[in-house]
């Protein structure tokens, strides 16, 4: 079976997927990896990718690209999202990625990021949804919302410049968050999400990316992350409210020891939890399903699916 790879370079993390394309066109994962490199550190204010963020990200990119080739991937698709979109020196990062990892990084617009994430979710959840499917993709620098019934019928999609890293850098100065800092984040999110159209009746919400999967893992105290157990899980509104309150009130050192939470994500998870909580509230829903398959899966299908001209 043909084997391909995708690498998703986000504001906070880099994710690798190596997968075989099955005869029915679906992909079966061979290897999945994730590393937090914080490419987007400081970009919200400086609009420049830092040398530290680029170096950490490039080192992981080289490692992931080499592993994909060693595993027999015929081709590798690489995307970069919010931080690279915002940075003045994004072209320099792309040039270094080509020189060091021999990959072509495509900086994708927010609307395409939303479309690819929705396609990945629709592949797994459309059959379960009794009504329309909604997707929220919470990243380090941006959050995407997509409304539709399947990958071919998207009714609404939009990328908002609110993410776990961006909001942490913009608002958080104390440890733990002060009531004033939390209130400022919540007010900003309520104002931002007021632009969302009302969800259609009977809609199912599915959350993707590291913030959402981490919140589920923390809620269920997963000492070792289990993608199969996370994928398809549910976070109720009550669970999300209680978990958000707990994370916002907990000092950073204590958050770093929580089962299910990567220590490198501990500083930004309160803001991430607030984003998901305010998204659920803005949509007027009672729960959020959890997907472990996000942009990297949509990118793989888009570039190397059986109907792709680039396969």
UniProtKB/TrEMBL annotation:
This is Ppx/GppA family phosphatase. It comes from Corallococcus coralloides (strain ATCC 25202 / DSM 2259 / NBRC 100086 / M2). PANTHER family: EXOPOLYPHOSPHATASE, RETROGRADE REGULATION PROTEIN 2. CDD domains: ASKHA_NBD_AaPPX-GppA_MtPPX2-like (cd24054). Coiled coil: none annotated. GO terms for molecular function: pyrophosphatase activity. The gene is aroB1. Pfam families: Ppx-GppA. SUPFAM superfamilies: Actin-like ATPase domain.
């Amino acid at each position: 079976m043909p084997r391909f790879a995708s690498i998703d370079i986000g504001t906070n993390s880099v994710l690798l997927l190596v997968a075989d394309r099955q005869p029915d066109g679906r992909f079966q994962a061979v290897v999945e990896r994730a590393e937090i490199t914080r490419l987007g550190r400081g970009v919200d204010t400086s609009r420049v990718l830092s040398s530290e963020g680029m170096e950490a990200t490039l080192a992981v990119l080289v490692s992931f690209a080499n592993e994909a080739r060693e595993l027999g991937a015929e081709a590798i698709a690489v995307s970069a999202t919010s931080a690279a979109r915002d940075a003045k020196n994004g072209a320099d990062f792309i040039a270094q990625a080509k020189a060091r990892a021999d990959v072509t990084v495509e900086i994708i617009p927010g609307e395409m990021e939303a479309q690819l994430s929705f396609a990945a979710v629709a592949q797994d959840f459309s059959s379960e949804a009794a009504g329309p499917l909604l997707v929220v993709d919470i990243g380090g620098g941006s959050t995407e919302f997509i409304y539709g019934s399947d990958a071919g019928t998207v009714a609404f999609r939009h990328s908002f410049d609110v993410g776990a890293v961006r909001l942490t850098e913009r608002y958080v100065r104390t440890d733990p968050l002060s009531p004033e800092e939390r209130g400022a984040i919540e007010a900003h999110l309520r104002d931002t999400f007021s632009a969302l159209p009302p969800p259609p009746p009977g809609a199912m919400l599915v959350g993707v990316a590291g913030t959402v999967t981490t919140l589920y893992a923390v809620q269920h105290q997963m000492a070792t992350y289990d993608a199969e157990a996370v994928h398809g899980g549910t976070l109720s509104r009550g669970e999300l409210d209680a978990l958000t309150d707990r994370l916002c009130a907990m000092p950073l050192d204590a958050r770093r020891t929580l089962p299910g939470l990567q220590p490198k994500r501990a500083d930004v998870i309160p803001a991430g939890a607030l984003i998901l909580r305010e998204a659920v509230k803005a949509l007027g829903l009672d729960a959020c399903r959890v997907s472990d398959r996000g942009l990297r899966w949509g990118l793989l299908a888009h570039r190397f699916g059986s109907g792709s001209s680039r396969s």
